[in-house]
Every structure is written in C-alpha cells, then in structure tokens.
Amino acid sequence: MSIVPMSLLDNVRLSNGSEYLKNYYSDLLRTNRSKALELINDQDIHFSTAYLLRPLLKQRSALDELNPLYQKAFEISEALSGKLSGQASLKAESQMRSAGECIVPALRWIVSTAEPEEGMDGKYEQLIDRCAAVLVRSLANTAMLPELASLIFARNRRGALIHELVWAFFEARSPESLVLLIQRLSSPHSADVKLAKDLLCFIPGISGNTLHSGSSLARFAFYWLQENRPFLYFTGESLHLCNKPMHYDVCKSARYLCRPVSVDSGKPLMRLNDDEEKLLAAFEKLPYNSQCYLADFSWQLYRRNVYQWRTWLVLPINEQAALAARWMGGFA
Description:
Elements (H helix, E strand, L loop, with lengths): L7 H9 L1 H14 L1 H8 L6 H13 L8 H13 L5 H12 L5 H10 L9 H17 L6 H14 L4 H9 L6 H5 L7 H10 L14 H15 L3 E3 L13 E3 L1 H6 L16 H10 L4 H17 L1 H8 L3 H11 L5
Antiparallel strand pairs: 1-2
C-alpha cells in the first residue's frame, strides 16, 4: 500500500499525542487564527486529526472557514454519529445518496485517513464503520476497498473490533477484492496471517493450515481464485452470525455446466436451455463428492478442448462420470 502523506498537525499529534495537539491548536487559534485555518485546511491532513480538533473549531466559530470537502466530512460525521435507529440510519444513507458529487470524496477521506485511532472517543470507530458501510452498500463505491482492507488489519493488530468493517468489505460483493486478503497470507505479522486465513476459510486448505509458508499459501489461494472466479457467489454470512463465516461459495452446478454466475445470486448469468436444465437436474441428484469431482473435470476439459467437452457433456451422466474417472489422470 502506498504511504499516505501527512500534514504538520498530523505530525504534531503522532509525535506528542492528542492532548498536546489540542492544546497547541487551541493556542494557535487564539493567537494566530489565519495560520490555524491554513494548517487545518492542509490537503494532506488526516481525518483523525481534524476530528480531534473539530470541537475547538466549533467553539471558535471556524467550521465555516474549512474547505468544502472538510465541511462535508464534518456534516457526514454529525449525521452518522451517536445512536441511530434503523429508520434514522436509512434516512441518513438516503440523504447521502442524493448529496451531490462531494459526498464520495469526503467519505473516502474519512475512511482512508482514519488511522491511527488511539486517543479517540468511543464514538469514533463507530463513525468510521458507518462511513465505510455507506460507501460500499449505499454508494456502491469499491475503489476504497484497499484502504478498508488496511484498516481492518490495522485494527485487528490492536485487538479492536472489526466486525462492522469486515461486513462492509464483503458487502461490496467483489471477488476481485479477495486479492487484498490473499496478500496478507504472506504478511510478516502473525495476526495478519491468522485473520486472512479466517476470512478466506471458504478456500479449501487455507484455514488452520500450518504446514505451508505464507507465500506458498498465497500462491495456492491466487490459483484457486483464478480457477473459481466465474462461479463464486456471495453467501451473505458474516461475523455477526458466526465465528468463521463462509463469505463466498462455488456454485458446483455452474462449474459443471461452465456457465458464469451472478455474484449476488449464484444463478447463471445467462438463461439455461432445455438440455442444460436436464443436465442440471441429473447433476443435482449426485452425492456432493461426485458433484465436486465432475464439476472440476468438466471445467478442466472445457478449457483444454471445448470440442471434446461438448461431446462429453451430451453423454448420460453415469457415462460422463466413468469417462471422467478414466481421463482425470491426464489433467494431473
């Protein structure tokens, strides 16, 4: 991940702590208001720093002197802070969807510069969680998923709650974003590796694997994702429901028919014809292990020789299975 630049006020906070920052800025607002406003409007300032200074800005009637992006960010923080009922939350999200072009950059600034969170009040992490959820669920913005992934792993290293951020990350329903988790399998931080394994537990052989190095696990996971991407769908499971949710699954019948599926429903993107419907009905009567075996063989044969695959697919399913058992060694 690229290094996020910092402002002078960020450096003051990180070097001397939150209380020192607030005292320093309070004095500056009183003695040199124009300089104080110049510093708070720095294009590189982090939201975490600005959030700490907001009460001082409000006290000195300086909020209106912030640039439009930062003003919008503080409006968002007001709307999404504190206790929100389900109805109030939906209303706030609806207002943001119609809030104009500035809303996405403001939300992205909040989420991408949210770290570190030490010294913040208890409402701060909740605010970041809600901003991430609005970006992904309400505004369908997936461009900030790398920042969201970084935030998840940074919080996890500190032992902070990650349930809401993980939920927002997977609500993007973007299998391509799984690469961001796979990369953490080779992290030098053991907490990153463990979390990545837990979040990727739907990939066979990943969760609980202690026999292989992180780099070899990552290579295996990359390969698995390439193999199964056309047939992955979002299950809707989350950390709110269980300790190790299976966020994605592979549609075995689609892999057997070599038909890509919708990530939302797991249904084929194109309507099946009558012959495919009959094949599907026969396939779904097979035991689970037989389905896995036949689906794997079908997909491999399809990519190797589509003409052989078409010839094979029109056979009765018991003959398909017999030929698959005979030929499978050739794909090893």
